[in-house]
Amino acid sequence: MNINTPLDMGLIKRLKVGDLVYLSGVIYAARDKAHKIIVDLIARDKELPFELEGFIIYYCGPTPANKGEIIGSCGPTTSSRMDNYAPLLYKLGLGATIGKGEISEDVVSAIKKYKGIYFITWGGCGAYLNSFIKSSKIVAFKELGTEAVRRLEIEKFPLVVAVDSYGNKIWDKRSKNEIR
Length: 180
What we know:
By secondary structure, the chain is of the alpha/beta class.
């Protein structure tokens, strides 16, 4: 299924665990250090460097681009590293996150309560995944280097729904090969 950003509630409610989707549009790449700063900005009631409502954060810290490339290797990082930050971001309207691995029950509860989505993509395939990225621009925290927040324009980026808006989790499926 081809989908676009920003995500709307109708689409979020239709996506189910195991659905294979190809995402196009704008997402934001941010890792641990950026999340800590973002949550601090929220606590101080400061403006965020990007829109949360309906948008997606990709848990990724891309490597520097080789000559002639838009971005370097751009694979997902372990999502549980952002578990302390994700519930608040979902509460504030974040549509989805992208990463790899399981997430905590607190994050699953926030996804269910605030009607979000958690997507996974293939770890170890960063050099392949960068081929779906059409532009990359640092939008915040340049001083963090590879962990700076980036605005990525993507086209048909391959994802699997790992937690749907109803709180269903792919790791609870009896057969892990039920990708549709």
